């Protein structure tokens, strides 16, 4: 006969049948004293615990009665038995991790979207549709290169919205761009490429991740037309041609063409290509040389960084090395989240959400640009979630102290530089909520006034 199934709680007790009723009482008592059975929590019913331990129900009933009399358990007619607070010893609180910096009230850090804009209702509706119609295999380990449904959906979406030539067989799903940097650093190592160039300046976190794979990291200067391609000598290069990060310029058409003719493997980080405000978005570089360019995109700016959803469109020659590096990385986004994103895109909900965000972020950028003092002219195009405000070296050096005084989190440019130092603020107008943006902008203007003085 099949074993009777218990619908109660699973618990661990340091007890064996040979210890008898007194030993069982001691084990329960110790679990409460240790804090493993938390004050106020429901304990297994006498019937369920007796079944799980293979003892008579009366044995467990007597143990519970004794412990209730001692103040360890709390019983009530018609209600489940709970752990009382009297017998439990307070748990030692974990030692708080010392924060490097105090939390700031106002947030203008670059590279962060407004978390309040995450479309909870749309995400929930798509998740429900996926759960209603998906196969049971969805809850397995999934495909090595990511969901075929999402890859096919991205193929159509990227071709339509960014001009990317994206065969689903050449798309790999990863856990965001940081994960992509680790994967690509290792994959390029496997095909003999051991040096990667980055724009100078650029966000140092991605340089560090590539360097951690053993890649030699070099910088190539950026001017008003993007990376100076004439100074590129590395066999692989990471660029942000649509909206250089952090300067904000667009790579000129002639440099885009020249870059694709260098013979280097190009990683195109299209980190905020959906957000162009002054005119139509610049198309992806990848379309000029799909066998030389690795196109990288994510949902971090359009939806939320915590989703850890990204994708790579690869040259044919790098598909297998990247899949192998992805497998050894041990990370892969949730297949359920992949299918939810695919549903959002295929139903048009994703496009509508991006358009709503575009309107909100454009309004913030216009408001920020109009509020800046006249002598501070932001660099770059009207796009993305940040702008750069040039400062003198002396003024930038004061920023950490002055910004802290006004409880403002904002980044400076010089830590992102590799060779010749640039100086300024990188103001992220996406990080604050809509209601908090006004206060953050006021804090920024107060900081700039002090720097001016």
Question: How helix-rich are the residues, as a percent range?
Answer: 25-40%
Q: Give the biggest beta sheet.
A: 8 strands, mixed
Oligomeric state of shown chains: single chain
- Reading off the top of the CATH hierarchy, the class of the largest domain is best stated as Alpha Beta
CATH architecture of the largest domain: 3-Layer(aba) Sandwich
In the sheet with the most strands, the strands line up as: 4-11-10-9-8-5-6-7
Spell out the CATH superfamily of the largest domain.
Answer: Type I PLP-dependent aspartate aminotransferase-like (Major domain)
CATH topology of the largest domain: Aspartate Aminotransferase, domain 2
Amount of beta strand? 5-15%
Low-confidence segments, given as residue ranges, are none
Summarize the structure.
This protein has 453 residues and is of the alpha/beta class. The chain has helices spanning 20-33, 46-53, 57-70, 120-133, 148-162, 176-190, 204-212, 253-260, 319-329, 335-346, 349-371, 393-405, 434-452; strands at 73-76, 79-83, 106-107, 171-174, 195-200, 216-223, 226-227, 236-239, 265-269, 293-298, 310-313, 386-390, 408-409, 411-412, 424-428. InterPro entries: Aminotransferase_I/II_large (IPR004839), HTH_trans_reg/aminotransferase (IPR051446), PyrdxlP-dep_Trfase (IPR015424), PyrdxlP-dep_Trfase_major (IPR015421), Tscrpt_reg_HTH_GntR (IPR000524), WH-like_DNA-bd_sf (IPR036388), WH_DNA-bd_sf (IPR036390).
Question: Your description of this structure?
Answer:
The protein has 453 residues and is of the alpha/beta class. It has 13 helices and 15 strands. Helix 5 packs across helix 10 (335-346). It is globular, with a radius of gyration of 28 Å. It folds into three domains: 1-98, Orthogonal Bundle (Arc Repressor Mutant, subunit A), CATH 1.10.10; 106-112 and 351-452, Aspartate Aminotransferase, domain 1 (Alpha-Beta Complex); 120-350, Aspartate Aminotransferase, domain 2 (3-Layer(aba) Sandwich). The model has no long low-confidence stretch (mean pLDDT 92). The protein has helices at 20-33, 46-53, 57-70, 120-133, 148-162, 176-190, 204-212, 253-260, 319-329, 335-346, 349-371, 393-405, 434-452, and strands at residues 73-76, 79-83, 106-107, 171-174, 195-200, 216-223, 226-227, 236-239, 265-269, 293-298, 310-313, 386-390, 408-409, 411-412, 424-428.
